[in-house]
Here is the input.
Amino acid sequence: MAKVDGTTARARRRVAATVGVLVLCGGMAACGDSGKKTTAAGSLKAEPSAGAWQTWIVQSVEDITIAPPPIKGSAAAKADLDAVKKAAKNRTKDVRDQVAKWGQPLPSKPWTDTLLDFISKGAKDPPLASRNGALVHVAMYDAVVAAWHWKYEYNVPAPTGVSTIATVGPDPSYPSAHAAIAGAASKLLEFLYPTQSAERLEQMADEAAQSRVNAGVATPSAVAAGLDLGRKAAEQVIAYAKADGSDKKWDGKRPPGITDTKNFWQPVEGQVSPPVEPLAGTWKTWVMTSGSQFRPGPPPAYGSPEFIAAAKDMINQHNNLTPEQAQAVKFYAGVEGTALPAGIVADVSQGDVVKAVSSDLGGVQLTVPRAIRAMALVTVALADAGIASWDTKFTYWNPRPEQSIKNLGLDPTFKPAIDTPRFPAYMSGSSTYAGAAQQVMTYLFPQQADTFKMRAETQAKSRIWAGIHWPYDEVGLDVGRKIGDLVVARAKIDGAES
Here is the structure.
């Protein structure tokens, strides 16, 4: 059985890399989760209108029906409350640890961490990873919006007369939002990662839901309704995913004019597998009209004066790195065995969101629904960034530095700092992801705009410093920003600002 809920060696390496790159990110508070336990103070503000926010996939939150709560004063209601009191009397250390694990300030975090762990265990497929990230987070967000609708429809208060070991929020307790998140996330992860243990994922969802009963903040009926709601929301997101075009198979043929020569991308010596996702640029987009909406003009032609000048510039940067630049190369490497570039961005952004729901970030304090919304906005931007980047990559098939520099005789011994990816260079996917996240995070936390700008530019430059991209590949940063702006425009009319 696969282990999906532990702290993996890869996760520990991500944390270590984060510490090393603080100088680039402006400190732990601005760069990611410090790992310290905090209280979800941000959830103390009620969100009575969250059930009316615009969803991404779910057509109507009213149509996701759940069983009504037990009638007040009924035998069923008494049994519901008695179960909470009984759980409170039987709290072991393991039970308390589970309550703490699933009761984090950002309740989606354990599921995001599980997603990133799954990505790190698979083959390197950046656009598929960013697609999956959006699907999981959209499912959690849509489930939360639906949960908030029913919370205020039924208006059931949290259990009373029982000791609690978690923060009791001001919103009604039925259905449980934590359970809805667990139901949605577990079903999406089962669908997206069929090689992982579906049984274990369902056990995790049940554990997350039961932890709210054990904490004394929700009844068994509330968590059962939440799980049911989350799973129903997930079914709609899965139906969307099945029709997004990501199952298309490449026929192995290059486009007209893209020859199988050194003028265009070729796998490096020793690579025998096909290029990664040549059709990803055709997948269904979230906010763009198509993957080609922001496609930049062609890169310099192979062997042209502009191409050679860019190559020499890259070689100079690659060979003269500062210690900080070398650390950035390592942190943003995104090689196989890691959460990949979009996962790194999502992980760092999640750290900011955790801080904002725990206390505040630059004067902004998020409630739980707003924190879940924030992660959905970021990951949707990353998904479209992946599609846009891959559209450009497999339109131009621009060669990578490792082969071209040697073929042109510019540096016969040239070796990049990280493995050359199995897809064309232009434009940089990592840069596109960085620009998209920058715009969304700046919208969410405007006082941190300079930090996000520096973070994005550092990530974009790191690909040149690593020796796997040309300087002109940084155009992805601008394309990503345009995608981020589209996500922000959508966010401004989703009802959360009303």
The first helix runs from residue 9 to 20. The chain has 18 helices and no strands. The radius of gyration is 24 Å.
